[in-house]
Amino acid sequence: MNTNKLQVFVFAMLFVVGAFTGCVDEDDDDKTTTTADEGPKVQSDQSVKIGFLNPITGPLEPDAPGFKWGVDEAIKDLTAMYADKNNSFEVIEMDSGCDGDTAASAAQTLVDSGVVAVVGAACSGASMSANAVLSAAGIPMISYASTNPGLSDASAYPLFYRNVPSDAIQGPAGADMMADAGTTSGSLAILHMTNDYGSGLADSVKAAWEEDGHTLCGAGMQGYAEDTTDFSALAASVADDATCTSVYLSSYIVDAAGIIEALEDKEYSGKIFGGDGPAGIG
């Protein structure tokens, strides 16, 4: 997990608790303090439960320990921040599985546990499903990694927040990056996972590329299931097409590595680009 991702994660934790801690037990006037200049009430002598959706299993499993480290560091900061209020903070960690069904079930457990807010999920599909459960219970969530453009729709995903940019921004940035690197019209292939993150980013890149007046190469844009392990046919479709001299990967870490290895096996010598997904650890 790189440093920037950890910083974003810790900030997400601080944002959630800073924004919503003061909303608990507001009717207990004896335990609140506020002035006109102090802003929102800050409760004293309370235990605050924070939900944490972590991809302990699934395609982002390699990142889970880094996310957990971020939680631990944020709790230290929060404890110090509210030391004079005698508050304690309890994190309830659940596995999102980077999967909609798993995340929805985990979200219900967090609701039943009495959390005031939730940090996560990481994967866009997991956040979408968890939001349906959490928003119905009036519980806000802030994601540190979900970038699907659809999540910006406050009507469809109420009480959802994130402190990472939408792929509606990353797509045009990626298109500009590839053009600046010498990728020309008719030379780009796009390979993407068919989950909410992979498809969302790929669609954004393709739309931006075509909006700039460019076309894709003969291999075009192709999707694959996120649990795919054999990328030989996918790599061959790019390497065997002479028009495809650049490829963009809308992927996670493990599948990106598999595709790159498969392209190497096919003696592909073109440029390879990617978004935030393959950044990984380090």
From TrEMBL:
Keywords: Glycoprotein, Membrane, Receptor, Signal, Transmembrane, Transmembrane helix
UniProt main location, coarse: membrane
Keyword Ribosomal protein: no
UniProt-annotated location(s): Membrane
Membrane topology: Multi-pass membrane protein
One Pfam family from the record: Peripla_BP_6
UniProt lineage: unclassified sequences, metagenomes, ecological metagenomes
Full protein name: Leucine-binding protein domain-containing protein
All copies of domain Leucine-binding protein, residue ranges: 47-272
GO molecular function, a single term: G protein-coupled receptor activity
GO cellular component, one term: membrane
